Amino acid sequence: MTELGTSLRDKRGFRWLILGLVSITMLWFYYLTDAMAPLQARLEMDLSWNAADYGLYSGAYGWFNVFLLMLVFGGMILDKMGVRFTGVLAILILLIGAGIKYWAISGHVGTEISSVEIGSWTLITARKSALVAGLGFAVFGVGAEMFGVTANKAIIRWFKGKELALAISLNISVGRIGTALAMFTPVPLVIWSKNLAAPVILSMLLLCLGLLFYICFSVFDRQLDKEKTEKQSANQEEFQFSDILAVVKIKAFWIISILCALFYSALFPFIKYATMLVVQKFGVSDAFAGLIPALLPLGALILTPVFGSMYDKRGKGATIMIIGSSLLLAVHLLFAVPHLNSFYVAIGLILLLGISFSLVPSAMWPSIAKIIPEQRVGTAYAITFWVQNWGIMGVPMLIGYILNRYCIVGTEEKMIDGNLLEVTSYQYTLPMLIFACFGALAIVFAWWLKYEDAKKGYGLEEPNFV
After folding, report:
1. CA torsion, ordered 438, 291, 147, 361, to nearest 10 deg
2. Distance in angstroms (rounded) separating the CA atoms of residues 234 and 447
3. Which of 172, 110, 146 shows the shortest CA–CA distance to 309?
4. In this structure, how many other beta carbons lie within 10 angstroms of the beta carbon of residue 206?
5. Containing H/E element for 426?
């Protein structure tokens, strides 16, 4: 039997190999998550969508996770069945959702107005293609969040007591590469292929590759289970329904979960609308405009591991979250200023937002592992992601409704792919102020978390190495 000192997880090279195998799938599903963001104007033209349809589609990501509690069930499956089974299941769900999404966006579904009704209640009214694309995105969201929770638990399993914050930060950073690619590659890909669904097709192919990488990870992870010490840990990970009650009774867990929801509600929905904002506020083409929002995840790609390593070595996790949330508020307030439309200002603000995007996640996700015992961490992450999905679902729909109802300033003619077409123009001050409100609330909860940590002694301000 392998002794603790020679355990696979004690071999530095093996740990980083495992991280790479887990993270590669993060890259591909992050790409598909945001691949339609630079194509909002083309979706409106080719599929007759409006801002509300686009907001409905973008918010659909969280439908099943929120209302059917799929994230909570996913956490239960993870704690009961382990990271290998749950990861493969999540990737298969991702592929099913992407397939439905492709079917709708590729023109196989009509563009007529359709409604979802229960009895005499009309729940949703939108273009049929937007509803079906939203359905696919909702299924995709189940797999994406399930895999995100699974990846975090897999990394904790291999890195706890070692470079945990750095490893989680690097995993996040690989996902940010996917987001960055989604900002500037879809428009050239659509122009080259003359197919609006081309980014979805590419993503499905890459997800299949990610499945192969994850199966390779599973081989090594199974070997880890054969070691005596890891068998004992696995026995401790058996899921019980009482684990849910044990998690939700911890006040600090709810504080950090709500902080997570507020922070990402001001970031991910912003990314969905960022390309259109840059096009209309700064007067550039959509093919070029995606390069500016791409600086956000690219900056996070570089800085998140830096801040994660700092947290590992020096601590100050709650303080890092306060600083990151403050930057988030400042950037959104400056974006809201109507006449602040210098191209260079936009680049500077996105770079600052990238720093915020690095600071908070690099400290937040490892901090949950300090608050919650390891045998319950899958359930804890699942509930946190569930809370986060309320914002990811609701805020894009809210912004789409507000843009369509209050922010249309007219239409203008633009040259797109050699054709002179009419494009709806929006004023983005009100949406940016809404994003800023989420940033302000995130600061409040970050300070509250720091106070709770000082009172309970979770060690969020302490280094991670043991």
Report:
1. -40
2. 35
3. 172
4. 18
5. strand 419-426
CATH number given to 4-456? 1.20.1250.20
Residue with tokens 């563009």: 111
Q: Is 344 exposed, middle or buried (0-12, 13-18, 19+ CB in 10 A)?
A: exposed
Question: Could you give the CA distance from residue 297 to residue 222 in angstroms, rounded to a whole number?
Answer: 33
Q: Is the pLDDT of residue 389 over 80?
A: yes
CA-nearest of 268, 310, 258, 314 to 293 is: 268
pTM of the entire predicted model: 0.76
What does the alpha-carbon distance between residue 464 and residue 466 come to, in Å, rounded to a whole number? 6
Cα(43)–Cα(417) distance, integer angstroms: 14
Structure letter (DSSP) for residue 47: S
Q: Which two tokens stand for residue 135?
A: 């359905």
* Cα(77)–Cα(432) distance, integer angstroms: 38
Q: How far apart are CA 49 and CA 359, in angstroms?
A: 36
- State pLDDT tens for residues 241-296: 666 787 888 999 999 999 999 999 998 888 878 777 777 776 666 666 666 766 76
- Cα atoms found within 13 Å of the Cα of residue 251, Cβ hemisphere only: 10
Burial (0-12, 13-18, 19+ Cβ within 10 Å), 179? buried
Mean pLDDT along residues 44-68: 86
Helix, strand, coil shares, percent, the chain, to 5: 80, 5, 15
The whole-angstrom separation of Cα 370 and Cα 113 is 49
CA angle 45, 46, 50 (to 5 degrees): 50
